[in-house]
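Please fill in the sequence for the structure shown.

STRUCTURE ENCODING:
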């Protein structure tokens, strides 16, 4: 199966970067290469460093972008962006793009074990290495599983689900996506199962985030990206669920915050100045046309900031 990913908010994202032909840019989540190719098409003497931790993505973008002289491709996590960029010979960049979340390829390829829609080995590792979802559901005590499901899935039934998973694995190891989905469904009352959406959706999201350390990597990646930006450089981030979006929103707000002195102080004594300004005050959501064309885009949000002098 070919690595494909339909970029969400595609035109808005590329336009927001205000690409300079001779600039240096980073696509920290190259995926199938859609964003990367759009950036490269606007470069003339510039460089794009495309990063992805998924070996399948690296194979795809290496072929797709081979004809562009400004293309540099590196396998790794965007949290390590600073060292990757420096190893490519650059100390600062004009723009960074992060498209957070799971690609269509990863969701639709049964072998990757991300989706409850296919019966497949329970995996969920974006890098295809390290601890898998199968390892977590078969070894963690219910208390730790409940913590993961509550924290990363924001599911109020986390304790019930975690105990149901432990009960199911006592009968036989949970090795496939369907086994896990059925264990979750069996643990929930009928009223919950009648609610909109698959009852295992939040559990799968939570395990995927835990397996890949997604929120920790996002936090590290945001800081690395902002520090790499030249004055006037832009950071564009696309998120797909509230945990990611909240982190991006708060981090950008912190960069945009200036004086924190009490309002009754006659003059500023803290000396703090804003380090960035927002391009979109509330972020951008997909248009109605995009929602009709790509229902998976419904939860997406684009946030962009500019680094100040």
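FILLED IN BY: designer on duty
SEQUENCE:
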């Amino acid at each position: 199966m070919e690595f494909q990913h339909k970029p969400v908010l595609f035109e808005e994202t590329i336009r927001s970067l205000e690409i300079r032909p001779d600039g240096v840019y980073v696509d920290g989540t190259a995926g199938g290469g859609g964003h990367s190719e759009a950036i490269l098409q606007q470069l003339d003497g510039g460089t794009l460093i495309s990063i992805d931790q998924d070996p399948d993505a690296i194979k795809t973008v290496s072929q797709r972008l081979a004809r562009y002289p400004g293309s540099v491709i590196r396998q790794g996590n965007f949290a390590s962006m600073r060292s990757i960029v420096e190893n490519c010979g650059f100390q600062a960049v004009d723009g960074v793009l992060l498209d957070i979340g799971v690609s269509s390829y990863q969701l639709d390829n049964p072998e990757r074990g991300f989706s409850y829609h296919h019966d497949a080995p329970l995996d969920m590792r974006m890098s295809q290495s390290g601890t898998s979802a199968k390892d977590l559901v078969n070894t963690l005590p219910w208390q730790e599983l409940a913590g993961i499901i509550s924290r990363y899935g924001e599911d109020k039934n986390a304790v019930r689900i975690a105990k149901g998973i432990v009960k199911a694995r006592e009968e036989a190891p949970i090795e496939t996506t369907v086994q896990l989905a059925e264990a979750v469904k069996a643990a929930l009352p009928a009223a919950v199962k009648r609610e909109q959406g698959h009852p295992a959706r939040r559990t799968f999201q939570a395990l995927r985030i835990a397996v890949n350390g997604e929120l920790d990597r996002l936090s590290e990646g945001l800081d690395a990206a902002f520090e790499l930006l030249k004055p006037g450089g832009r950071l564009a981030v696309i998120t797909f669920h509230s945990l990611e979006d909240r982190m991006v929103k708060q981090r950008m707000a912190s960069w945009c915050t200036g004086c924190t002195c009490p309002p009754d102080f006659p003059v500023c004594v803290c000396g703090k100045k804003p380090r960035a300004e927002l391009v979109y005050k509330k972020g951008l959501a997909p248009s109605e046309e995009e929602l009709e064309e790509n229902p998976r885009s419904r939860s997406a949000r684009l946030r962009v900031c500019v680094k100040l002098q």
